[in-house]
Amino acid sequence: MVLPIKPAAIVTVIILCVFTTVNIHLNHPLNDLIFMLIILIVVASICLIVNITGQKTLYQNYLLINRLYKESTTDGLTKLNNRRSFQEQIVRLNAIAVRDDVALGLIFIDADYFKIINDSCGHSMGDEVLKKLASVIKDKCRRTEDIGFRIGGDEFAIILYGVNRAKLEETCLEIVKSVANFNLNNNGKILKTSVSVGAALKTKSTKASSDKLVKIADEYLYKAKANGKNKHCLKTI
Question: Is residue 77 in a domain?
């Protein structure tokens, strides 16, 4: 057991003071009292040193666990939350939304023609596209309840807690327009790109599962792609 250093030091001083007072009151020989006090002070000092070392170890372990968890739930390229984090958060936030009778929105974003960009312009340009997309997603996550993810390859997602249909549709439109306005420099040539967006809104009166929300958002993403890309499709459930 490790105690905070200040309380541990105070308790140690109190114990020594009480011990000294009692022994003086009992008229113990002064030499014996000094000898016992020296022993107690040495033992107490060792205990305090062990306590301080234990505290440092615990704090270092805490920082390490936090760092490892952050790395395990963060995408290295874009610094967005990763697929593992998405799977945890969609279940957690959907359960909270059902409990609190709050709407929940889910947006899936997929880069159009990304494989062609990767193959023709190189992976470095593909990475640049992904990082630019991530910056757009981060810009749309302005509240603590809004979370952006890279869930794999050129696929991204945003969970919007407590959002209404108008705001969800506005966010989808802004994402499509922002990406369409990208001007990426590819060896002196301007590279244009676009995204397809599928979204699902679970109204506050709906008790749908997170799996159903994911399935519908995914279906409407592919609907947007089938309808010509560079657009969004949204479904309210």
Answer: no
Short-list 202, 203, 198, 222, CA closest to 211: 202
On whether both 58 and 134 belong to a single domain, the answer is: no
* Spatial contact of 107 and 158, defined as CB atoms under 8 Å apart: yes
100 and 147 fall within a common domain: yes
pTM of the predicted protein model: 0.75
CATH number reported for the structural domain that contains residue 216 in this entry: 3.30.70.270
Q: CA 94, CA 170: separation in Å to the nearest integer?
A: 22
Domain containing residue 163: 83-236
Residue 127 sits in the same domain as residue 230: yes
Distance CA 11, CA 15 (A): 6
pLDDT one-digit tens code per residue, 192-231: 899 999 999 999 888 889 999 999 999 999 999 999 999 9
Q: Is residue 78 part of a domain?
A: no
Buried b / exposed e over 169-182, threshold 16 CB at 10 Å, is bebbeebbebbeeb
Q: Which of 119, 154, 211, 218 is catalytic?
A: 154
With bands split at pLDDT 50, 70 and 90, how would you rate the model's confidence at 34?
A: confident
pLDDT digit string, tens, across residues 56-115: 777 777 677 766 666 677 998 999 999 999 999 999 999 999 999 999 999 999 999 888
pLDDT at position 33: 65
Tokens representing 65 are 């666990």
The answer to whether residue 154 is catalytic is: yes
